[in-house]
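Practice record 12: protein with calcium ion.
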Amino acid sequence: MPLPLLLVEDDAVLADGLVRTLQAQDMQVEVLRDGIKADARLQGNQPTVVVLDIGLPGIDGFEVLRRLRARGTTTPVLLLTARDAVEDRVRGLEAGADDYLVKPFASAELVARIRALARRVAPPPSQLGLGSLSLDSSTRRARVGERPLELSAREWGVLEYLLLHAGRVVSKQQIIDAIAPWGDDLTLNAVEVYVSRLRLKLDGAGVAIRTIRGFGYLLEAGD
Ligand code: CA
């Protein structure tokens, strides 16, 4: 079931990019671009997680958050800040934020933080697995049978994305959108490199990453 998420972000380019990424991660994203609308929206039925920018037209993210908590609402809130100022983080956490991310951030990190917040209010999702491969997103441990699998962060990102979409064809661009940091140039060639490394590491795991020529990949059971 898609995870209902409210994104409050006035930067249209950033918001559009985030929506694409989060939808690809099976999240149902509602976007608002100003603080007053967000405050009104949050007086209604609650999303599972709120991703809230601090600098907003109308009222800022701190004030949206303060009003939310003043109503006694415990919906998890992740603050986005453009500033790396310690006082902003402290102020956000004091206002009742559950977590924060400083821009620019990796989309994979945002996804991981949102999932972590959602887990606090929902039963933990089952582990991802196929063949003798298993991935535990909460501990970020991967195994083939009992053998631990050592993966770089990027390899983890590619493999997790493929597993989440096992049996379906995914494009290289979808993988990039899901795992690349904002403004970070991850090329199609780099994705090919990660996939070829994963194929070596997954030898004997009973899973195959098939190449769909000119498009992307398909993860399925088999050798
Ligand atoms: Ca802003």
